[in-house]
Specification:
Layout: H1 11-26, H2 29-32, E1 39-43, E2 51-58, E3 63-71, E4 77-86, E5 90-93, E6 98-99, E7 104-111, E8 117-127, E9 134-144, E10 148-151, E11 167-174, E12 179-187, E13 193-202, E14 208-210, E15 217-219, E16 224-231, E17 237-247, E18 254-264, E19 267-275, E20 283-290, H3 297-305, H4 307-316, E21 320-327, H5 356-366, H6 377-385, E22 417-424, H7 439-447, H8 453-456, E23 457-463, H9 481-490, E24 495-499, H10 504-516, E25 521-523, E26 530-531, E27 537-539, E28 544-545, E29 550-553, E30 563-566, E31 576-584, H11 620-623
Parallel strand pairs: 2-9, 11-18, 20-21, 20-22, 22-23, 23-24
Antiparallel strand pairs: 1-3, 3-7, 4-6, 4-8, 5-7, 8-9, 10-12, 12-16, 13-15, 13-17, 14-16, 17-18, 19-31, 25-30, 26-31, 27-28, 27-31, 29-30
Helix pairs in contact: 3-5, 4-10, 7-9
């Protein structure tokens, strides 16, 4: 028998084998079409096939989800033993017994919570799909009772607290500038709050704009969200609108808050009339209260030697002064307590004239260093200055001195301003703090010596610490705490604390300059000063001051709108002073960072970048506090 080589083809045999193999495969439906139905599960609003998450469902509502069971096979799909387990808030409806080839059948699952909480359950069933014989679809639901509070946060604070007011008030805003405020949305209940939308109705949307939110923005329970509101007035005028908030709060699903703002001009002109102070600006009574304890010899000598520095300031400005001296000694061991020092030649009060410095030096020479170590400067000052019909009030133990006022008519003038200068190296009450009278009590009695004390009284505390490692930069911790407290109680308009070091001449020059400075400071009521073209100020029916005769003093804590100061000759007492000037809102800039105060998101701290990481509009410089 002849054998053929393996390489010789037998096409008829190959075709027969291929046909047999195809026929065998075609008859095996289990490999191609399946022997049963084929289950496919689709869950509404989910990309999962084994979890139905209802999310938050109000305890007064019912959450629903559709579960679609599809038969993707070539035979009917049978479903048996379907049941719901877990928490009793879940139910299903329309469960099918079978699904025909290529069809689908919906099951409606519901969650109906009765109270706030988290709930879980499952749907279980069996099928004749061999790949999904047993099926479990988990159920999840949160019972929710959301409560939304809409309020307006303060413009200068950061935090969750705010006024539960009905209006977002932008106040004055420079025209064509943008100011930011915010509304605060607080999830105040035990459940998260869903914000559907925040919109603004009313004036043109270019005037007020609301920050955008993602759809269905969630605020976690007990947290808050600030939504920025911007106001850009196109021109001067009043603008209003209404902010509308839609949420899932079942009690108030729709809430409204008003919004209002005023566009103001950059500059407006004003004409103000001021009343000059009642007392003459150059008429002044000055009382020196000198510590006469044993440690004060060098300081007394320095005051006497440098007296000319002080009096030169007064005479240069042509001040009509009375100067007298008393001591801190209130024990009566050296001289009658609460009275003025009298020199051996009878000099008691120093007045203007060629002999002023010499007469003051005579008084200083009369002051000795044998006084009590319980220095009581404020009690001495008040006893010397109070009217004879008045009693100086103290909290001291009963002692042998008389606290009745001993005002000397040769010194005191009702129509003169008053200056008190206390010079000491120890605290009020001495090293043993013998006088427990509160600082505020003494300050109050000093202020009551004159009407309008802010204008008519000046108090100086001069501290001489001797040798001190801190140099001139001293504080109340250096042994003069009560004197410092008394000065603080008098207020910055009245009291000045000066730390004396090595040169008492500088100290006396400084004090004399402050005393002799013209009392011609006029508080503005409208802010920044921009005068007319000729830079002149004028009195009503009187003198006109050119630009070199007056000074503009910028805003400060005590003078929030700034002041005008006449540098040389002041208007006469009780005369009227007229000022024509412009108030330019753009120029208000207390922190000098180049951003107008009306627009500054942190007006008291310099922050030229105006960075604000929060929607509430508060600058990060203030937020850091």
């Amino acid at each position: 028998m002849l054998s053929l080589p393996r390489s010789v083809a037998r096409p008829e045999l190959s075709l027969a084998l291929a046909a047999l193999s195809f026929a065998t495969f075609a008859c095996d439906d289990s490999k191609f079409r399946g022997v049963s139905g084929k289950l496919v599960v689709n869950i509404e609003l989910s990309n999962k096939t084994d979890l139905v998450d209802f999310g938050d469902v109000l305890i007064t509502d019912t959450g629903t989800r559709r579960i679609t069971l599809k038969n993707d096979g070539r035979r009917s799909l049978n479903i048996t033993n379907i049941k719901v387990s877990g928490d009793k808030v879940f139910t299903i409806s329309n469960p099918p017994a079978s699904i025909t080839e290529g069809a689908d059948s919906p099951i409606v699952a519901t969650c109906r919570p009765k109270e706030v909480g988290h709930y879980e359950g499952a749907i279980n069933f069996e099928t004749d799909d061999p790949t999904m014989a047993k099926v479990q679809i988990n159920l999840r639901c949160n019972g929710a009772d959301p409560h939304l509070v809409v309020c307006v946060p303060p413009i200068d604070t950061v935090g969750s607290n705010c006024d539960d007011g009905n209006v977002v008030d932008f106040g004055d805003t420079i025209e064509k500038f943008t100011k930011r405020r915010a509304i605060r949305l607080i999830a105040a209940g035990n459940s998260d709050v869903l914000i559907h939308s925040v919109t603004l109705q009313g004036d043109d949307g270019k005037i007020y704009q609301v920050g955008s939110l993602d759809p269905e923005t969630r605020i976690v329970a007990n947290d808050h969200l600030d939504v920025p509101i911007d106001f850009t007035p196109p021109k001067p005028g009043s603008y209003t609108g209404t902010i509308q908030v839609e949420s899932n709060d079942p009690s108030v699903a729709h809430q409204e808050r008003g919004v209002t703002g005023i566009g103001v001009q950059d500059c407006q002109f004003f004409d103000e009339v001021f009343q000059q102070k009642a007392l003459p600006a150059n008429k002044i009574d000055i009382l020196f209260v000198i510590d006469d304890s044993s440690s004060m010899r060098s300081t007394q000598d320095a005051v006497k030697q440098k007296a000319a520095n002080f009096f030169n300031e007064l005479t240069t400005k042509k001040m009509d002064f009375h100067v007298a001296v008393t001591t801190t000694d209130m024990d009566g061991t050296e001289r009658p307590t609460g009275t003025l020092v009298v020199a051996s030649d009878g000099t008691k009060v120093v007045v203007p004239g060629a002999g002023a410095v010499a007469n003051f030096q005579k008084l200083m020479s009369t002051v000795d260093t044998y006084g009590s170590t319980d220095e009581r400067g404020m009690l001495s000052a008040l006893t010397n200055l109070a009217a004879t019909t008045r009693t100086v009030t103290t909290s001291s133990p009963t002692s042998n001195w008389d606290h009745k006022g001993k005002r000397d008519p040769d010194f005191w003038r009702d129509d003169a301003r008053l200056v008190v200068i206390i010079i000491s190296d120890e605290d009020d009450g001495g090293s043993e703090s013998y006088d427990p009278t509160p600082a505020a009590d003494y300050a109050s009695q000093i202020r009551n010596l004159k009407a309008n004390p802010d204008d008519n009284i000046k108090f100086f505390l001069v501290v001489d610490p001797g040798v001190n490692s801190q140099g001139c930069n001293l504080t109340s911790a250096d042994g003069t705490a009560k004197y410092h407290a008394e000065a603080t109680a008098l207020g910055t308009k009245v009291a000045t604390i000066i730390d004396y070091c090595t040169d008492f001449g500088t100290t006396l020059t400084q004090i004399g300059g402050i005393i002799a400075a013209p009392q011609c400071d006029f508080d503005l009521t409208k802010g920044i000063l921009t005068v007319g073209e000729d830079n002149s100020l004028s009195l009503v029916g009187g003198q006109t001051y050119s630009s070199d005769q007056w000074t503009y003093l910028p805003p400060s804590q005590d003078h929030p709108n700034g002041q005008v100061r006449i540098n040389d000759s002041c208007p006469e007492a009780q005369s009227k002073f007229e000022l024509v000037y412009a108030s330019c809102a753009r120029s208000y800039d207390i922190d000098a960072d180049g951003v107008p105060d009306l627009m500054d998101n942190c007006p008291n701290l310099p922050n030229p970048d105006q960075n604000s990481s929060g929607a509430d509009g508060v600058g990060d410089a203030c937020r850091a506090l």
